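Human:
If only I could read backbone structure tokens as easily as an amino acid sequence. I am handing you a single protein, as its sequence and its fold in token form. I hope you can help me see how the letters and the tokens relate. Thank you; the sequence and its tokens follow:
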Amino acid sequence: MDHILQAAPVWFRVASHTESEVLGSAHILLDNAVCSIEVDLRVHDQGGEIAVQELVPGTSYPKTCHERHLQSDEHFCIGFNAGKGIVSKDHAVVWWGLLRHFLKLQRVAERTGRWPPQQELAHGSAGAHQLAAIAAAKDLGIEDEYMDMLAGQSAWFADSGLQLNARNRLKNSWLPCPVGCRKNGKPISRAVCCRPAAVAALITQERLRRKKTADFHWLARASGEQCCGTMLKCGLRDTPLDGVVSSDNSGDESQGSIRTAKSGEA
């Protein structure tokens, strides 16, 4: 916690602190905007990791909203394992940067009802599978296609009909390579695909990401969690909302452009 306190940025005003906790408020000016982000925060040691949440959860943001990366325990998820290994001031500087970015993304979520897919990691244990899928997509040179898939576009590697054989290669080897590889201007077959391991990894890891994400939402519903109603899509309800409820209390001009919607059934 000493490193976190020493690295506290100018946009964070420390109100009080102990050996295990820092209380204060964020004041972040937005580019090309007439307003700013203002939120009171509690930063503390949680089992050896640095955790952060609203000083009074539910004041500016929903207490819990997985689509906005506000966790079941009312803490912020600012990045994959972001709170681990803060053993120097440099580590703490990076942590504060992640927090600032997270708070700015909350502003985007309030205004649009969406979390940018390029800034999102799947919930719970699904996150590790997403990272593995991204690595495989990079190996194949189709990372942009993977990001487009996360944003809602269809993609061949998300086809549930694709099957792998005992050698971990695509079945129906005579069919064209799904990556789109060509030789002499003609599509090559799956049998001669030059990166079959990456193809298999992408398909496998994407399926695991989807399964683990579905499991995560099932467990959240089973524990009684309900949709907060602020996002257009939510794994805790069956159908998307037509509009969103803004949790912004600043009263600025954009409020009128956001339609109010009721929270969906969990």
In short: Residues 196-222 form the longest helix (27 residues). The beta strands are 12-17, 21-29, 36-46, 49-54, 182-183, 186-187. Confidence is low (pLDDT under 50) at residues 239-266.
